[in-house]
Amino acid sequence: MPAFGTHRGMQHALIEKHAKPAPRYTSYPTAPHFHEGVDRAAYRRWLASINASQSLSLYVHIPYCDTLCWFCGCNTKYTRKYWPVADYLPVVKTEISKVAAHLAETAGVQTIHWGGGSPTILTPDDTLDLATHIRDRFDVAPSAGFSIEIDPRGMGADKIEALATAGVTRASIGVQDFDAGVQMIINRRQSFEETKDVIFELRRVGIEKINIDLIYGLPGQTISSVAATVAKVQELMPSRIALFGYAHVPWMKTHQRMLDEAMLPDAHARFEQSRIMADLLCAGGYELIGMDHFALPDDPLSQARRAGRLRRNFQGYTDDPADVLLGFGASAIGKLREGYVHNATPTAEYKKLIADHGLAVVNGYALKPDDELRAYVIERLICDFAISRQLARAQFGAAADEIFLIAGGIARDDEDGLVDWDDDVFRITKRGEPFVRSICSQFDGYLERGNVRHSMAV
Ligand SMILES: C[S@@+](CC[C@H](N)C(=O)[O-])C[C@H]1O[C@@H](n2cnc3c(N)ncnc32)[C@H](O)[C@@H]1O
Ligand code: SF4
After folding, report:
1. Which of 290, 259, 197 is closest to 3 using CA atoms?
2. pTM here?
3. What residues does ligand 1 touch, defined as CB less than 6 Å away?
């Protein structure tokens, strides 16, 4: 299944016209619209309103890495010493205890995810200690999935054993690109052999669900280098692959200035790279999930996509069905029925807030009915490339009609065959799929407000 099949000349014109910067829509409204009106008091109220019908998903953020990649857009800090991590962990454990103490009955924890930074910077003992602390404070279902982001460089067998003992079920491994020249430019030297050995060990200890993260649009990448990387990745047989377009945001991540902007592939080259990679992955048996993930047909993400159960959250595409996402750690974002809460990002501020108040929320967003409707529409479009008036009306009543006025307008103005509209289903066509972020942004009630800059939408 060619993911992005378009004639070259036409494709060039489409990119010129539609590849505008746009949000990645891992939430709606997006984080730049969060405000201080949502504070610790709001979070306490929202936590207390969680009831026995609501299942939980827990996210723990570890904002440390022992080496810094120049492309990195994550909330992380470089540290050569372990003491900042050792100082941070008791604070996160305090936050976990305090939040758990605010909860009455819940339907239990369905999913745990540790992200970063690099959660695998933790020593084996600290990994086990943190996992045990979570299981002691929350009712974690025996069937709960536990995924963790892994930097495979320097991962010893002891750390891998500790992950298995902690109950990890899925490992998400950062690769980005296997080309030695590209790795030099982005300050990330990571051999294929080392990556392969870590995956072998993970499988040996029983962690068989493997994801791999790749990036296109990095300086030094070419069509042939990304194709060679995909071929190597296929040898590792991950069940999922996340293929991110490099987000160049040096005004936010100043270390990205280490990269020479003159070497960045332009929108056309980025498009070609993503298309080649997508085509190779699909030819190799992977299914395209949304705009930038791939999964084998028997992976739960593929099953969720086929069943219309695909979701999008701060980790990207997910099959996580939980009603509430609780975020722990510096910069973590939570999502409750009432809205979003966002912890302080600087670790010093986060630690002080937890020490003084037990919670570290500094801003967030209380969802209004119109936000919930638009959030639903944008999530369905970015997951399914389609929205149905009938389904939207069943959930939101006549308010949904306003959305379909916008949809009708987009369809009327569409000169390029990017969308289809038959009065019930508004669908993004194969040709329109690469521009899904731009199309979603037309349903975004906040985009024009504020001075927010976004990364390239293609
Ligand atoms: C927290 S890291 C993964 C775990 C570990 N720290 C590592 O790098 O191996 C999350 C992923 O985000 C992606 N990422 C980071 N910075 C990015 C950027 N500027 N643009 C696009 N993707 C990015 C990378 O693919 C990376 O693997
Ligand atoms: S990409 Fe991963 S390892 Fe590299 S700096 Fe970012 S979080 Fe750390």
Report:
1. 290
2. 0.94
3. 65, 71-74, 115-118, 149, 151, 174, 176, 213, 215, 244, 246-247
